């Protein structure tokens, strides 16, 4: 049974129309470079909006689940993310300096270390971005299904179709345009939800415990946050698309400030929902909390808030995945052919993802799975920052060891959780060390 009134449906339809309109605007006078990387002309506040919108997404729902489990201590995840972006600024400035011909994360590896490391970076990149695309599509489909009463697959089909339409029209520029309007909406609606849900509400003092998650989980959250930027192709694309190095530095710094306050608001909302409805399933607590606590009209606004966050992530991951497939594996195509190929792959990626969401139906579990692959990509990337002239064979062995390690853990671990992070870090660092040893031996043997 649908939980929405006529006014709620009107608000949601208006939101979809606005998103499609901005996708159409992005397609006007579109150049091939604009489709691929927004003509490398993004200003500070455009970059801030698209940086934050792309990393909000399903984390709204996943973080609420963490709050149900760990209380306010789950905020350590966001503290780690903010620290990670601040650490990344120095590396980002180096990327922007040499990025005039870069479009994807793998281009960096191809330029410095050759075809084979770039191949493995592309492969893991596709798994990471495709995985988070599926996670966000699961979240969006659950929202639509719960509120409308429509089936899960119909909900997934509607969301995928709308995103596909504006991505085909405007490409990366459409991602940026829609991110800007959606993130403005996220900030406004997040503030409104805080006021509505917390007025006069006493939240359990135990849930405010800053360290209740425990040392292992807190360290896991911090380390994940620190590593994620180094394995986030969507972030790298935004570095490439900025006007200059000054824009990169300011946009990342400002985005951290804005992101932290939005995350703090989300934590308060999650605690309020938990205080009012402690019996909810953590995996869908935010969705069901809004459904049960908000009146007609406000429910429609809440869905727009969730959709704005999730769709801004889905379009980013869909475009980044498709771009990685074409520009990572087919480097000698001209720009015109590349744009046409990306559009074809975009269609295929969203169709396949829509089918797969029915199989991977657990967002928290999916997040842990694909975070493992993030670590596999992040550790070798960090190694190239620490030692720029690293041997390509070291990277190749590191990628292979990490890839095999994560597959083994996922297939044998009885429970996936924060402990996965420390295990994968050990495996990935071991892969870099092993690669360094083997490459040194090979080099000496050749001499």
Helix content: over 70%
* CA-based shape: globular
Total domains: 1
> What is the makeup of the main sheet?
none
- The proportion of strand residues reads under 5%
Mean pLDDT: 85
Q: Helix and strand string, N-terminal first?
A: HHHHHHHHHHHHHHHHH
CATH class: Mainly Alpha
Gyration radius, in Å = 21 Å
Unreliable parts: none
At the third CATH level, what is the topology name? Sodium/glucose cotransporter
Terminal Cα separation, in Å? 73 Å
Could you state the CATH homologous superfamily? Sodium/glucose cotransporter
Number of strands: 0
| Distinct helical segment count | 17
At CATH level 2, the architecture is Up-down Bundle
Summarize the model shown:
By secondary structure, this protein is mostly helical. It has helices at residues 6-27, 32-37, 44-54, 59-70, 76-97, 105-113, 115-148, 152-198, 215-227, 233-241, 245-276, 285-293, 298-329, 335-356, 363-386, 392-412, 419-446. It contains 17 helices and no strands.
């Amino acid at each position: 049974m649908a939980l929405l009134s006529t006014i709620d449906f009107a608000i949601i339809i208006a939101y979809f129309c606005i998103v499609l309109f901005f996708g159409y605007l992005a397609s006007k006078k579109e150049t091939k470079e604009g489709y691929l990387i927004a003509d490398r002309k993004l200003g500070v506040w455009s970059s801030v909006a698209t940086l934050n919108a792309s990393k909000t997404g399903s984390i709204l729902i996943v973080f609420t689940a963490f709050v149900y489990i760990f209380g306010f201590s789950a905020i350590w995840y966001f503290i780690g993310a903010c620290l990670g972006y601040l650490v990344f600024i120095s590396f980002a400035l180096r990327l922007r300096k040499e990025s005039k011909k870069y479009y994807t994360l793998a281009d960096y590896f191809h330029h410095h270390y050759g075809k084979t490391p770039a191949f493995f970076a592309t492969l893991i990149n596709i798994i990471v971005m495709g995985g988070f695309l599926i996670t966000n599509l699961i979240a969006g489909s659950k929202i639509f299904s719960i509120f409308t009463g429509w089936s899960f697959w119909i909900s997934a089909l509607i969301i995928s179709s709308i995103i596909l339409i504006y991505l085909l029209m405007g490409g990366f520029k459409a991602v940026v345009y829609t991110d800007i309007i959606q993130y403005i909406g996220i900030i406004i609606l997040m503030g409104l939800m805080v006021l509505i849900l917390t007025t006069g509400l006493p939240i359990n003092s135990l849930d405010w415990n800053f360290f209740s998650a425990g040392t292992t989980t807190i360290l896991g959250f911090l380390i994940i946050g620190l590593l994620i930027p180094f394995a986030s192709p969507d972030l790298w694309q935004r570095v490439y698309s900025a006007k200059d190095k000054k824009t990169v530095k300011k946009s990342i710094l400002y985005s951290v400030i804005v992101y932290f306050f939005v995350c703090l608001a989300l934590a308060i909302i999650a605690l309020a929902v938990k205080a009012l409805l402690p019996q909810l399933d953590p995996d869908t607590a935010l969705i069901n909390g809004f459904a049960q606590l908000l009146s007609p009209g406000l429910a429609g606004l809440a869905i727009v808030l969730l959709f704005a966050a999730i769709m801004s992530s889905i379009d980013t991951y869909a475009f980044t995945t498709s771009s990685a497939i074409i520009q990572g594996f087919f480097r000698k195509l001209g720009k015109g052919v590349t744009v046409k190929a990306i559009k074809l792959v975009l269609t295929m990626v969203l169709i396949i993802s829509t089918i797969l969401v029915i199989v991977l139906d657990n967002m928290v579990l999916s997040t842990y799975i694909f975070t493992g692959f993030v670590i596999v990509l992040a550790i070798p990337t960090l190694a190239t920052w620490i030692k720029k002239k690293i041997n390509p064979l070291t990277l190749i062995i590191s990628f292979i060891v990490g890839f095999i390690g994560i597959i083994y853990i996922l297939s044998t671990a009885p429970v996936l959780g924060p402990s996965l992070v420390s295990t994968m870090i050990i495996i990935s660092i071991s892969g870099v060390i092993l690669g360094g040893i083997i490459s040194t031996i090979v080099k000496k043997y050749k001499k």
